[in-house]
Amino acid sequence: MPDVICMGEALIDMVSLEKGVSLEHAPGFEKAAGGAPANVAAGVAILGTSAGFVGKVGDDFCGQFLRETLYDAGVDLTCFILDPAHRTQLAFVTVLADGSPDFTFYIERSADMTLAAEELDEGYVADCDIFHFGSISLIHEPMRSATFRAIEVATQAGALISYDPNLRPPLWPSLEVARREITAAIELCDVMKLSETELEFITGTQDLAEGAKHLLARGPELIAVTLGPQGCYFDNGTARGLVPGFEVPVEETTGCGDAFVAAMLVGLLEHLRADVEPADLSRDDLFKLFSFANAAGALTATGKGAIPSLPPRDEVEELLRDRRPEYFSGESA
Fold it and tell me: Which of 162, 107, 100 is nearest to 135 (CA)?
């Protein structure tokens, strides 16, 4: 069984062939595998840790493409469902001049929304060490109830629960609903990764320390706030700090946050195997963990497409060895 299980949406990103243009002026589009939880599962597998994906796509050419892409990345697809009754979700994406993506979603009742609790293989979920989910799974029923059930099963089995709010305002009925539902899920997780924008959306503050303190009070053991090229901020209640990022030539940033999460989960799993929980990690432990995560995110920005750009462990370590050799100071020769 996989060590890390990610549950949620897998979809097709239709990415503009030209960078820095609006969607209406895009000359054409290229399909790419997407969906944050699917990207995270692929990232974990590419880094060399076993990963599984729980979700549903349409039994159409898009769904088959997603299945093939995740399979090639090394993701376990035991609980990947092809649904002949619904289509795979699409998102049209243009990459702005700074490399950041701008999304427009084309959905009505896509397959990912229809995964029901009774379709879960609870034994599969219960056997993982880390369970990861995002807020998009909480928008529609029956996927919402299925996600809550999977979290319950994983929690009861002793798994670490990881949560990425992954705010996509166009997918929610309103920002008020989004804030309420995203905030309510915080108490279910042990580890939470979010962006600066999401931190302000949820907590009402841009202050990293104040925002992280607000989130920790809701139950998580560890908060990580990504800061783009500046790196990230972490806080586990006793240790906190900023970890600088890496300057790289940016092609696009679509999968950077997902690469960061994947690397974070791989690092946390190594500590869990040594019986060290996130709340007990030292500042040095966390600085090293998030240096690894920052490096994975930076390398992903240098390529096109999320999953094709996700780096293997040797490439992440090569960047660290070149730019931050102190990362290896504790290694034996």
Answer: 162
pLDDT-derived band at 332, boundaries 50, 70, 90:
very low
Span 128-148, pLDDT tens digits: 999 999 999 999 999 999 999
Place of tokens 């999977």: 150
Q: What is the pLDDT of residues 271-310, one digit of tens each?
A: 999 999 999 999 999 999 999 999 999 999 999 888 999 9
Residue 256, pLDDT above cutoff 50 = yes
- Chain-centroid distance, C-alpha 167: 12
Q: ∠ CA(107), CA(149), CA(72), 5° rounding?
A: 60
- With 0.90 as the threshold, say if the pTM is over it: yes
CA distances from residue 250 to 71, 111, 157, 159, 254 in whole angstroms, order as listed? 27, 33, 41, 35, 11
In this predicted model, which residue has the larger pLDDT, 17 or 202?
Answer: 202
Could you tell me the fold of the domain covering 4-328?
UDP-N-acetylmuramoyl-L-alanine:D-glutamate ligase (3.40.1190)
| Whether residue 101 has a cis bond before it, omega within 30° of 0 | no
How would you classify the pairing of strands 51-58 and 130-134?
Answer: unpaired
Residue 19, pLDDT score:
83
Q: Is 41 within 8 Å of 77 (Cβ atoms)?
A: no
Three-state secondary structure readout of the chain? CCCEEEECCCEEEEEECCCCCCHHHCCCEEEEEECHHHHHHHHHHHCCCCEEEEEEEECCHHHHHHHHHHHHHCCECCCEEEECCCCCCEEEEEECCCCCEEEEEECCCCHHHHCCHHHCCHHHHHCCCEEEEEHHHHCCCCHHHHHHHHHHHHHHCCCEEEEECCCCHHHCCCHHHHHHHHHHHHHHCCEEEEEHHHHHHHHCCCCHHHHHHHHHCCCCCEEEEECHHHCEEEECCCCEEEECCCCCCCCCCCCHHHHHHHHHHHHHHHHHHCCCCHHHCCHHHHHHHHHHHHHHHHHHCCCCCHHHHCCCHHHHHHHHHHHCHHHHCCCCC
